[in-house]
C-alpha cells in the first residue's frame, strides 16, 4: 500500500501486567472504510486512543496521516476527526453552540464557523432544533450531529469509536450512509464496532480477540477464508479458538 494514511507495526499497550493491545500490525489506505471488529474488552478502543494521540504506546511504531504517534501527537490531532462512544457533545449547550465551540477548538475563523454552522443545520435538517439543548435531543440526532462536528475541519481521517451503540436499525443505516458519503469524498474512516453486521459495510475488517488481530481481510475474503456465511460466524470461530488456546 503506497503512502498509507494509518500504519501500525507491532503496536502494543500494557497496563501493568495486563496487555490490552498485543503487537498489532496493519495499514489503512486513503478513502478506505476500515473496520475494527471485536467484543467489548478486545482492545479496540485502546488501539484507537494510541492512534489518535490520546495514549502513548508501550511498544511498536505507528504513523497517522504521516505523523509519528510518539513524536507528533499534536499534528495528528489537527489532521483527524474523532467521535467517541459518548458522542463528545456538551449536553448543556445548544446545537449551534456545540458547533461554534468545536469550530473554535479546530481553529476555524469566525466566518468559517458561521458558514459551517449554517451548512450543518441545513444539511442535517436541524434548523428547527438549532437552539435546543443537546441534552433534550433523541440519541439519533446527537449521533448525526457528533459525526458532522468531527468532520467540521475537513480532516484526512475520522476515527469513530462504536458510533452506533444504542440506536435503532434505521438510524444505524442512515449513519452508515453518511460514512459512505465522506469516504467517497476521500476521507479515510476508521471505525470500531461490536455489531457483526456492520463489518459487511467496511472495505476491510480486522477482527480483534484478546488484544490481537486474529484476522484481517475484506468481508468477502474473510467469509471465504473461514468458509462462513457471515462475519459473525467468522468471529465466533476465532473467539472459540482463542478460548481453546489455538
From TrEMBL:
It comes from the Bacteria. Keywords: ATP-binding, Nucleotide-binding. The keyword Disulfide bond does not apply. GO terms for molecular function: ATP binding; ATP hydrolysis activity. Residues 6-235 form the ABC transporter domain. SMART domains: AAA. CDD domains: ABC_DR_subfamily_A (cd03230). InterPro entries: AAA+_ATPase, ABC_transporter-like_ATP-bd, P-loop_NTPase. Pfam families: ABC_tran. Signal peptide: none annotated. PANTHER family: ABC TRANSPORTER G FAMILY MEMBER 20 ISOFORM X1, ATP-BINDING CASSETTE, SUB-FAMILY H, MEMBER 1. This is ABC transporter. It comes from Fodinibius salipaludis.
Amino acid at each position: 500500500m503506497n503512502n498509507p494514511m494509518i500504519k501500525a507495526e507491532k503496536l502494543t499497550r500494557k497496563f501493568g501486567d495486563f496487555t490490552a493491545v498485543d503487537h498489532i500490525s496493519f495499514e489503512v489506505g486513503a478513502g478506505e472504510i476500515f473496520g475494527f471488529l471485536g467484543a467489548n474488552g478486545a482492545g479496540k478502543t485502546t488501539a484507537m486512543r494510541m492512534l489518535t494521540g490520546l495514549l502513548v504506546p508501550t511498544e511498536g511504531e505507528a504513523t497517522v496521516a504521516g505523523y509519528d504517534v510518539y513524536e507528533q501527537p499534536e499534528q495528528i490531532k489537527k489532521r483527524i476527526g474523532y467521535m467517541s462512544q459518548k458522542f463528545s457533545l456538551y449536553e448543556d449547550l445548544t446545537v449551534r453552540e456545540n458547533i461554534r465551540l468545536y469550530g473554535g477548538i479546530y481553529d476555524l475563523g469566525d466566518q468559517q464557523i458561521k458558514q459551517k454552522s449554517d451548512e450543518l443545520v441545513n444539511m442535517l435538517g436541524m434548523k428547527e432544533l438549532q437552539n435546543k439543548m443537546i441534552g433534550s435531543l433523541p440519541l439519533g440526532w446527537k449521533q448525526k450531529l457528533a459525526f458532522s462536528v468531527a468532520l467540521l475541519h475537513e480532516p484526512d481521517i475520522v476515527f469513530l469509536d462504536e458510533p452506533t451503540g444504542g440506536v435503532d436499525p434505521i438510524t444505524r443505516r442512515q449513519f452508515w450512509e453518511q460514512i459512505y458519503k465522506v469516504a467517497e469524498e476521500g476521507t479515510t474512516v476508521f471505525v470500531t464496532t461490536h455489531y457483526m453486521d456492520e463489518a459487511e459495510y467496511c472495505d476491510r475488517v480486522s477482527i480483534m480477540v484478546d488484544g490481537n488481530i486474529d484476522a484481517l481481510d475484506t468481508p468477502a475474503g474473510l467469509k471465504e477464508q473461514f468458509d462462513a456465511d457471515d462475519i459473525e460466524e467468522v468471529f465466533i470461530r476465532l473467539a472459540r479458538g482463542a478460548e481453546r488456546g489455538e
